[in-house]
Amino acid sequence: MAELILIRYGELALKGKNRSYFEERLLKNIRANMKKASRCRVYRTRGRLFVEIMEGDLEEVISRLKDTFGISSLSTVVRAQLDMGDIKEKALALMEKVHRPGETFKVETKRANKAFPLKSPEVSREVAAYVLSRLEDLPVDVHSPQKRLHVEIREAEAYVFTEAWRGAGGLPVGVSGKGLLLLSGGIDSPVAAYLALKRGVALEALHFHSFPFTSDRAREKVLDLWALLARYGGDMTLHVAPFTNLQKAIYQHCPSDWGVIVMRRMMMRIAAETALRRGAKALFTGENLGQVASQTMESMAVTEDAAGLPVFRPLLCYDKNEIIHIAKNIGTYPISIRPYEDCCTVFVDPHPVTRPQKDRARALEENFDFTPLLHECLENMETVSISEKASPGKKGIS
After folding, report:
1. Rounded distance between C-alpha atoms, residue 171 and residue 46, angstroms
2. pTM, to two decimals
3. Per residue in 210-252, pLDDT tens?
4. Sign (positive/negative) of CA torsion 94, 100, 102, 107?
5. What are the tens digits of pLDDT across the range 380-389?
6. FRET pair for 361, CA 20 to 30 Å: which of 45, 60, 95, 210?
7. Element housing 386 (H / E)
8. Is residue 104 helix, strand or coil?
């Protein structure tokens, strides 16, 4: 018989009249994800989604589902008819497979189908009594059992299971609109991407490449990061902007201590135009308040002034250790720490301005016509469609 996985979701159940839209998006995302691992039937009933595996590796399917945003938890389940005799037999067969001598257990029942003649406590008592009468050395502990035997009674059939795996949570990718992420090769921006995806944002990314000041290996590092994040967001698009000529002009025509601020304003202009061309409604960055000189409140306000679009910063109030913890758990950390620097480290003044003013930044930009170089970046941008690349040891947020 085909394996059956029951999927639960958290926030989606609170969406009221919009709930079906969120469920349909989650179903679509699961189906796309499953195509890469197995042949499955994905369907929903009231309050639950199911994945029936016709062909494929169960562990790989479970791993992919755990990485799919919108899923709060999942379990492999055994089907039973809406009949106490069949429910008890299926429960006994399952416990014979999984129980260990001396391991305490408890039966917990959820009766979503209120037409079923027995109430939840009655089902639990009957199932527990039946299992206990046929298995030895299986003590009951209703307070802190080592094994929980679950029974769910739903509209068409019942389900029996003992395990539940935590999902990624959040919202299905795509329900919150589309954004453009400014992606460096560092630790922070890939984590910001993960958190934006978790809130249902469909992402494209923009990377600024300053060859020969930054190497092809730095570019490959970014490609690898985005390919890994495609595990969570589906196949995604990366734009690579040639930034060398514009970056050199900035540092030739602006005071060195203002170079980072003007550079980031130019990045915002390019990002905003790219977002508009690609149908994205907002920009996302890996900025973190106070982490470096360009991430003071004043600096972020001055750089955002050039965007003309909302700029969201998922990591704003995280400390570095928290960001590293997430990066390690989602698998991006080993790639991010490869020793290949991005363009933000090029020509950096040892004492950059930390309290810039908008008027001063605008005045500096008027000293030289950067418009042709901005157009050069936009018109020579490389666009790459990227499919997922697996990473060993990823866990998600915990």
Report:
1. 18
2. 0.90
3. 887 777 888 899 999 999 999 999 889 999 999 999 999 998 9
4. negative
5. 999 999 887 6
6. 210
7. strand 382-386
8. coil
